[in-house]
C-alpha cells in the first residue's frame, strides 16, 4: 500500500537548494524509504552495517569520490566524526543534494548539525504516518488504534500490528536507545518507566513521584525521560505563561507520541476495548496533539494552559508571544463548552476558539466556540488560521 508522505514535497524543494539535508525521526518510521525516493542517483550507506563502516576508513577520500552522486548516510549519529568531514567536502563543492543524513532523533545529531554544518544543511523531522496522509483503504479508527508506524499501520490485521509493536518496544528497551545515545540503560527500569508514562498519559509530569515509584533518583528519571523524548517516543507539552497575576501550573504534561505504542503499553487488545478503558480520553487527547504537531507551521508553537484553580485549555496555539487559538479536546461528538475553558479564553484572548471531536459536524456554539472534527480541522481550518 503506497503512502505519500507530506514531508516529501518539502524535502524535494530543499534538496534543490541545500547541499545537505537531515531527516530525523524514530527508528522504523520510514526515513530510509523516503530518502531513497528523493533521488534517482544515490549511494546508500548504513552506519550499522560493518561493510559500509569499513568503506569509511579513509572517509574523506571515499566521499570525495562520490561528489557527483547523492550520498545517503543512515543512522549517522553512530559515527559523529563524519560531521567534521562533511563540512570541507561541502565547501569544496557546494552543489545541491550532495548528502542526505538520516538519524534516529539523537540530540547529539542535531547538535552536530547546528555546530559543524551551520548554513550548509536543512534538517527535518519525519513523524509516523499522520491522519492527513492516510490511504483511503484505512480508516480513522485503525489509525488511532494502531498508530502511525508503517509496519503497524499497514499490517494485514490487528494481531500482526500488535506483534510488530511488541517487538518494537522490546527492541527499543533492550538495545536501540542505549546504542543510539551510547549510554548504559537498565532495560527493566526503562520498560517500567515507559509503562508508567503510558498509564499517566497526558498528566502533569512529577519526576519525584516517578522516582519514588521506581526506586531511583529524580535525576535518573529525568535522564530517562530525555532519552525517550530524544528518540521521538514521548512529547513534553509545556505550559503557557502569560498572566503573572494568576497562579499557573508550571509542570509539563507528557504524552506517548504514537497511540499504537500507547495502546500496547496499556495492553488494550482491540479498538472496541479502547472504549472500555479509563485511558481513552487521554489517548484521544494525545492523538489530537500529535496530529496537529505534525502539520503545523514552524512559527506555530504548542502549549497547554492551566490555572491553580483548575481552569484548563488542552492546547494553545501560539505565534511569537501571541495566543492564536485555544483548543479543547473532547471525545464526545456532542460536546458541551466547559466554564473552565471559557475562563481560559478570557485570560488568553485568542483570535480563535475550538472544540475538536472525533466525528462531529462543524458548528458554532452560543459562546462563539467552533466545534469541529479532527480531520476537518487539520485539512481545512489549521492551514487557514496560521
TrEMBL record:
Residues 174-332 form the DUF4143 domain. Gene3D superfamilies: P-loop containing nucleotide triphosphate hydrolases (3.40.50.300). Residues 18-133 form the AAA domain. It comes from the Bacteria. The lineage of its organism: Bacteria, Pseudomonadati, Bacteroidota, Sphingobacteriia, Sphingobacteriales. PANTHER family: CONSERVED PROTEIN, DUF4143 DOMAIN-CONTAINING PROTEIN. Pfam families: AAA_14, DUF4143. This is ATPase. InterPro entries: AAA_14, DUF4143, P-loop_NTPase.
Amino acid at each position: 500500500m503506497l503512502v505519500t508522505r507530506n514531508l516529501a514535497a518539502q524535502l524535494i524543494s530543499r534538496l534543490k537548494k541545500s547541499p545537505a539535508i537531515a531527516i530525523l525521526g524514530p527508528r522504523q518510521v520510514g526515513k530510509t524509504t523516503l530518502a531513497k525516493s528523493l533521488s534517482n542517483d544515490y549511494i546508500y550507506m548504513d552506519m550499522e552495517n560493518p561493510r559500509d563502516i569499513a568503506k569509511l576508513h579513509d572517509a574523506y577520500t571515499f566521499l570525495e569520490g562520490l561528489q557527483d552522486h547523492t550520498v545517503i548516510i543512515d543512522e549517522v549519529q553512530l559515527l559523529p566524526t563524519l560531521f567534521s568531514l562533511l563540512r570541507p567536502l561541502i565547501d569544496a563543492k557546494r552543489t545541491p543534494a550532495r548528502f542526505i543524513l538520516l538519524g534516529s532523533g539523537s540530540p547529539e545529531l542535531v547538535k552536530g548539525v547546528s555546530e559543524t554544518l551551520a548554513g550548509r544543511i536543512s534538517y527535518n523531522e519525519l513523524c509516523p504516518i499522520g491522519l492527513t496522509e492516510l490511504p483511503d483503504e484505512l480508516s480513522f479508527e485503525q489509525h488511532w488504534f494502531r498508530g502511525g508506524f508503517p509496519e503497524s499501520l499497514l499490517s494485514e490485521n490487528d494481531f500482526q500490528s500488535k506483534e510488530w509493536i511488541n517487538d518494537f518496544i522490546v527492541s527499543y528497551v533492550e538495545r536501540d536507545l542505549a546504542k543510539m545515545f551510547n549510554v548504559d540503560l537498565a532495560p527493566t527500569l526503562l520498560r517500567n518507566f515507559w509503562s508508567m508514562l503510558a498509564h499517566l498519559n497526558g498528566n502533569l509530569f512529577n519526576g519525584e513521584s516517578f522516582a519514588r515509584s521506581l526506586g531511583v533518583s529524580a535525576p535518573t528519571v529525568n535522564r530517562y525521560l530525555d532519552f525517550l523524548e530524544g528518540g521521538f517516543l514521548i512529547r513534553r507539552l509545556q505550559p503557557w505563561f502569560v498572566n503573572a497575576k494568576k497562579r499557573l501550573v508550571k509542570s509539563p504534561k507528557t504524552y506517548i507520541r504514537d497511540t499504537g505504542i500507547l495502546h500496547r503499553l496499556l495492553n488494550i487488545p482491540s479498538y472496541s476495548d479502547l472504549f472500555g478503558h479509563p485511558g481513552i480520553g487521554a489517548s484521544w487527547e494525545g492523538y489530537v496533539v500529535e496530529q496537529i504537531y505534525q502539520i503545523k507551521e514552524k512559527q506555530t508553537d504548542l502549549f497547554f494552559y492551566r490555572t491553580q484553580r483548575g481552569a484548563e485549555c488542552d492546547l494553545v496555539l501560539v505565534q511569537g508571544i501571541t495566543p492564536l487559538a485555544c483548543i479543547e479536546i473532547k471525545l464526545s461528538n456532542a460536546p458541551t463548552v466547559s466554564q473552565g475553558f471559557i475562563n481560559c479564553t478570557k485570560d488568553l484572548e485568542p483570535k480563535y476558539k475550538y472544540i475538536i471531536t472525533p466525528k462531529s459536524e462543524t458548528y458554532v456554539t452560543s459562546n462563539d466556540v467552533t466545534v469541529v472534527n479532527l480531520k476537518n480541522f487539520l485539512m481545512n481550518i489549521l492551514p487557514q488560521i496560521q
